[in-house]
Design goal:
164 residues, alpha/beta, Maf protein, five-stranded mixed sheet, 6 helices, 45% helix, 20% strand
């Protein structure tokens, strides 16, 4: 079992122990978090659904991210990540939603938003959604996406532990 599978099992176990379903809202990972989770036998007991919202329109239509949020702050921002997580939670049966939006490269980075920048949104039922910023080393698109999956799941575990 590799590191990504181990953290996926830990996340699924944490959901199962707390009797909560999980949802994902993914942009830069294009569904890799959901794919990682659903590759684990028994994941159907806790995985509710995944939203792949690669375009700005998808973020607005599927998750309810305000068009004004994207216009003012950008798709890769604290505000968008938080709204993505909140929207996934509200539009699912989940008790926790993990959202990611970032710049996996190789192009698309700017001085303010470099390749490797990822915003993580975490929403847990009954708690205020939060967003966490990470900048991964630019070791290529696959590396950034893989680290985003691993980190999102770890943040989910941490959030569930905090939920008691």
């Amino acid at each position: 079992m590799n590191e990504h599978e181990e953290v996926a099992v830990q996340f699924l176990t944490a959901c199962w122990e707390r009797k909560v379903l999980a949802a994902t809202a993914e942009s830069c990972t294009g569904g890799l978090i959901s794919a990682t989770l659903t590759s684990i036998p028994g994941s159907s007991a806790v995985v509710d659904r995944g939203f792949v919202t690669y375009s700005n329109e998808a973020k607005t239509e599927m998750l309810g991210v305000a068009a004004e949020t994207i216009a003012q702050f950008g798709a890769v921002s604290e505000q968008t990540a938080r709204e993505m997580a909140e929207g996934a939670l509200l539009r699912s049966n989940a008790g926790i939603a993990l959202a990611v939006t970032g710049i996996a490269g190789p192009e698309g980075g700017t001085e303010d938003k470099p390749v490797g920048l990822v915003w993580f949104g975490i929403a847990v039922s009954g708690r205020k959604p939060l967003a966490i910023k990470r900048i991964f080393e630019n070791n290529g698109r696959d590396f950034i996406r893989a680290e985003t999956v691993r980190t999102a799941l770890q943040y989910g575990i941490d959030a569930l532990r905090g939920a008691g």
